[in-house]
């Protein structure tokens, strides 16, 4: 088993933080995305979409998509339960994970990919107006999330989960996307400081 990894890119990081929280160590094969190695034969052989991460099992089976890879490890190593425990909790974690993915991480990525000069050859066509259109949507989500965190310590409830991982990485991604987190969002910033203090955040 090995993980084809894309370094500081958000989706590979989600898997690495998840594994670190589980205390799972597996061989990692670095793929230099800045050198476009994810477009090469090694990745394409296992993922025709040429995206990372990719988990290659011992029998050659390839799993792609960050959450699917995390689900595989959650089933093998259910403790600590990062994807919920019991029917209701699992549904709630999935709901919040999906919200953080679609209404935060994706929006931040749209801002970055359609405006940052380094992405000009990646995002073709790069549409500056689309980046600008997503900026207020990110702020709206951050305000909503700040209000939600007035009622509980973590995104999906009383316990740290994959939803917190996705949201943390989305906020990390705000910096290269040149998005500022308003200082008045105190609950959000308090949560962010707490999750960033976890050893897994540096994975």
Detailed description of the structure:
Helix 1 (10-22) crosses helix 6 (162-174) and helix 4 (87-113) runs antiparallel to helix 5 (128-148). The protein has 7 helices and 4 strands. The model has no long low-confidence stretch (mean pLDDT 96). A 4-stranded mixed sheet has the order 2-1-3-4, covered by helices on one side. The chain is of the alpha+beta class and 203 residues long. It has 2 domains: 2-76, Glutaredoxin; 87-202, Glutathione S-transferase Yfyf (Class Pi), Chain A, domain 2 (Up-down Bundle).
Outline the fold blueprint.
Blueprint: E1 2-5, H1 10-22, E2 28-30, H2 41-44, E3 54-56, E4 62-64, H3 66-76, H4 87-113, H5 128-148, H6 162-174, H7 186-196
Parallel strand pairs: 1-2
Antiparallel strand pairs: 1-3, 3-4
Q: Which runs of at least 5 residues are low in confidence (pLDDT < 50)?
A: none
Measured distance between first and last alpha carbons: 19 Å
Q: Which CATH architecture of the largest domain? A: Up-down Bundle
For the record, the CATH class of the largest domain is Mainly Alpha
Structural class, please? alpha+beta
Molecular shape: globular
Compute the number of strand runs. Answer: 4
CATH topology of the largest domain: Glutathione S-transferase Yfyf (Class Pi), Chain A, domain 2
* Lateral arrangement of strands in the main beta sheet: 2-1-3-4
Helix proportion of residues, in percent? 40-55%
Q: How many structural units, i.e. domains?
A: 2
> In what range is the share of β-strand residues?
5-15%
What is the ordering of alpha helices and beta strands? EHEHEEHHHHH
Taking Cα atoms only, what radius of gyration do you get, to the nearest Å?
Answer: 17 Å
Can you summarize the main beta sheet? 4 strands, mixed
Counting DSSP H or I runs of 4 or more residues, the number of helices is 7
Average pLDDT: 96
């Amino acid at each position: 088993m090995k993980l084809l990894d894309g370094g500081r890119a958000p989706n590979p990081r989600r898997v690495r933080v998840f594994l670190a929280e589980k205390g799972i160590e597996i061989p990692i094969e670095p793929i230099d995305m800045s050198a476009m190695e994810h477009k090469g034969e090694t990745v394409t052989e296992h993922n025709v979409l040429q995206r990372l991460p990719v988990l290659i099992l011992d029998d050659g089976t390839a799993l792609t998509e960050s959450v699917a890879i995390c689900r595989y490890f959650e089933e093998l190593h259910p403790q600590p339960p990062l994807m919920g425990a019991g029917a209701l909790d699992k549904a709630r974690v999935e709901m919040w994970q999906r919200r953080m993915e679609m209404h935060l991480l994706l929006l931040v990525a749209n801002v970055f990919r359609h405006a940052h000069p380094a992405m000009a050859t990646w995002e073709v066509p790069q549409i500056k107006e689309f980046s600008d259109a997503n900026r207020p949507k990110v702020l709206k989500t951050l305000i909503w999330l700040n209000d939600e965190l007035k009622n509980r310590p973590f995104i999906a409830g009383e316990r740290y989960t994959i939803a917190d991982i996705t949201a943390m990485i989305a906020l990390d991604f705000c910096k290269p996307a040149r998005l500022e987190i308003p200082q008045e969002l105190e609950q959000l910033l308090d949560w962010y400081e707490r999750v960033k203090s976890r050893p897994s955040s540096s994975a």
